Amino acid sequence: MKKRRSAIPLLDASSATLQSRAIRQRDPKQPNLPFDPMPERVEPCLALLRRAPPQGSDWLYEIKWDGYRLAIHIEPKGVRVITRGGHDWTHRFPGIANAAKKLGVGTAILDGEAVVLNQEGHSDFGALQRSLGGRGGKRASTEAVFFAFDLLYFDGHDLTQTELSVRRHLLEDFLEGAVGAVQLSEEVHGDGGQLVANACSSGLEGIIAKHRDRPYRAGRTGDWVKIKCIQSESFMIVGYERSKSARGGVGSLLLAARRGDDWVSVGSVGTGFKTADAEYLRKTLDKLKINRPVIPLKGKSYVFAKPTLIAEVEFRGWTDDGNLRHASYKGLREVQDNAAVFDVSDKSAS
Asked: Where do the ATP-dependent DNA ligase family profile domain residues begin and end (predicted)?
């Protein structure tokens, strides 16, 4: 009988034997995962605002959805739906959670946006808020659809250090043919400038461009950029202007943005809210009333408030003195959603 040969070791440049990495000890809380332990939460990658899309084959494009940023955690013990700020909203999106349970995977983290679609098939932020019972409401949305655009963890593997092109390939295979409350956010192909024009003419909010070769990095790194047809951002309400003629007694809302750790005025918004909105805002802001404004503002009819309520505002651009141009109120953001108030440094970078 021939003597069995031994395996020949791999040698590096110095002729030393190459050793494989030591096997990681398993997480006792997750004993069935042989590779990377599943994180409790992944800080989201955010998109920088730009006037024009980047060009070239290094970039892919998607529709920009107008809803709530969420992460779906599919775990051995069940499904969790986590907001951008890290709050568990599984109970607010039961249809999405149930659809995720049926995807047939042991473990995964999907990054995406929950939206409510209108009759044209476009995401409608106002409709999403109404489905949740408005700001502070406790209603569960049965209409919301989750559009997944990234895969951060899959079957025991942490994918955040993997380039986007690989993550998208796995995501597309995973969600192939998925319909209902969890769907794939499709890549759209073509020239970036033409895609923006098409999005705007179709009544969409805009597009997102993402660098194909980048890992998943938290914050506004520039790996992702957003190009909007109509700009829409979150601003802090720091008071309101009283009006005897306006519905609900609110002539306009006084708005502020961040500048680092400070607040800076960006003007006001006086259109877009209905009588019920204005009455709710006035009553709530009156409870938050303060004598000294958080930013230097003067007006005989101004009522100043603690910076607590976050408004989503559409606008057409910026004036030379740093105020919003042609602003229109869209609704209030949930405090629990921890929506990032706009920082004016992003405006200068755009």
From this structure: 137-228
Residue 64 annotated to the active site: yes
Looking at 3, 64, 244, 300, which residue is catalytic? 64
pLDDT in tens, 90-114: 999 999 999 999 998 989 999 999 9
What pLDDT, on the 0 to 100 scale, is given for residue 1? 43
Domain boundary among 190, 217, 241: 190
The structure's pTM equals 0.71
Q: Is residue 139 part of a domain?
A: yes
What's the angle, vertex CA 159, arms to CA 157 and CA 162, rounded to 5? 135
**Residue 167 and residue 163: Cα distance in Å, rounded?**
7
In angstroms, rounded to a whole number, what is the distance separating the alpha carbons of residues 300 and 186?
Answer: 51
Neighbours of 298 (CB within 10 A): 6
Query: Reduced to 3 states, what is the DSSP secondary structure of residue 290?
Result: coil
In a domain, 40, yes or no: no
pLDDT 10s digits, 11-57: 334 444 333 333 344 455 655 555 788 999 999 999 998 889 999 99
What is the DSSP track for 30-51? Answer: STT-SSSPPPS--PPB-PEE-S
Cβ neighbours of residue 300 under 8 Å, at least 6 residues apart? none
Token pair 């107008």 in the structure block, residue: 66
Range(s) of the domain holding residue 144: 64-190
- What three-state secondary structure class fits 174? helix
